[in-house]
Amino acid sequence: MATTEPTMPKLFDMAVTVNGTRYEQAVEPRTLLSDFLRHDLGLTGTHVGCEHGVCGACTVLLDGESVRSCLIFAIQAHGHRITTVEGLGTIDNLHPIQEAFRQAHGVQCGFCTPGILTTVVPFLEQNPDPSEQEIREAISGNLCRCTGYQHIVDAVKLAAERART
Ligand code: FES
Ligand code: FES
Question: Which atom from ligand 2 is nearest to the alpha carbon of 110?
Answer without folding.
Answer: 1
